[in-house]
Design a protein that fits this description.
Chain lengths: 226, 226
């Protein structure tokens, strides 16, 4: 009997892209179910009742939420083309940098691009520091060494989404002069065939994020949601 | 040659307690190095230059930061008495609940106890919801089943620190009437011998957290740091 592998996601989300990319790297066929984030399906709410968020991986009827948790599950379930290293210390380092991306880097960067101008300088400084930390960490072609690994997948947002956000926000924080190593990694990553095939269309993402930015600045709450 | 296993921690921190408890459950001897959090040692800053926080596990010269990352490292390095289940789906669920504790439950609970009275009602409501979610999740004696596992260790704060915080704040959110299943788990957990032997002295923690609460309410910033 064929396996049931479904991804509940959204085309413009780096978090559901992480899951799709991992499945593609493993060669696991899956069905992608596009969620309307303004009107979430009853299935999504059933499968992720705690956070009510995409992505959810459904594997033979069992749902898993939280992209980093899903990535580890994928690596433990389909063992070909491992995305985590074998050595416990290297595995710990990979997990450390994924947490750093999600808990420090991404919130700081998003804030730097999305915050109102008068408060931007401090946010830009913090984002710059985090990016320098990542720049110094990158030793090989990819964070995973010669092939794409967990940290590269978790940094997909930095590789692709940031470029679009910079264009929308008309702010250039990441460029080859300030971050030559990261920018070289971005080139390698987005041109790596399974990545290239799975990224959203740039023009669509540009329109989508442009509209979200306009809506944010037009609203009174100014609450940044990414 | 004997292994070098050192824990840089603080006696009153649930995060360094997690690491100590995991090592005790595994029967791994270690040296505990008490950090003065107001004046961190140059070794701590060297071993955790990104976050500059405890706990850090030093294993044969290699440092690992972030308590949940350390717990996975411990389980992969010393294989006796596993703290994560074997099955990939159960492992994913354990990781999901640990993230829930750290990212949702703990910040909401801390806020509920520590926020000024006029803003407390909403915070209490959110904390209550998260605790109900946890209460509904607990099916066996422990989150890990018949023995203590990753989620139990990650919930150590709820088992022991909450009781002290409730006494300091004179607020009772967790009790046997509202959360009978969680309170039964708390009893089982804190009386489990490796836990009991590794918890801080209650009176010391009471004095420490009482002083911190007083300092917070006396300061103008009211920034909650836990």
């Amino acid at each position: 009997m064929a396996e049931e592998v479904k991804v509940f996601g959204a085309w413009g989300s780096p978090f559901s892209h992480r899951v799709e990319l991992a499945l593609k790297l493993k060669g696991v066929p899956y069905e992608f179910i596009e969620e309307d984030l303004a009107n979430k399906s009853s299935l999504l709410l059933k499968y992720n009742p705690i956070h009510k968020k995409i992505p959810v991986l459904l594997h033979n009827g069992k749902p898993i939420a939280e992209s980093l948790v899903i990535l580890e599950y994928i690596d433990e379930t389909w063992k070909d083309n491992p995305i985590l290293p074998e050595d416990p210390y290297e595995r710990a380092m990979a997990r450390f940098w994924c947490k750093f991306m999600d808990e420090k880097c991404m919130p700081a960067l998003w804030k730097a691009y999305w915050i109102e101008e008068k408060e931007r300088a401090k946010a830009m400084e913090e984002a710059f520091e985090h990016l320098k930390t990542l720049e110094n960490e990158l030793k090989g072609k990819f964070f995973g060494g010669e092939t794409i690994g967990l940290v590269d997948i978790a940094c997909n947002w930095l590789a692709f989404w940031i470029g679009v956000i910079q264009e929308v926000a008309e702010i250039e924080l990441v460029n080859g002069e300030k971050f030559p190593i990261l920018c070289k990694w971005i080139e390698e990553f987005i041109n790596y065939s399974p990545v290239k095939e799975s990224l959203p269309h740039r023009e669509n993402l540009l329109a989508y994020l442009g509209a979200r930015r306009e809506a944010l600045f037009a609203s009174t709450s100014k609450q940044i949601i990414y």
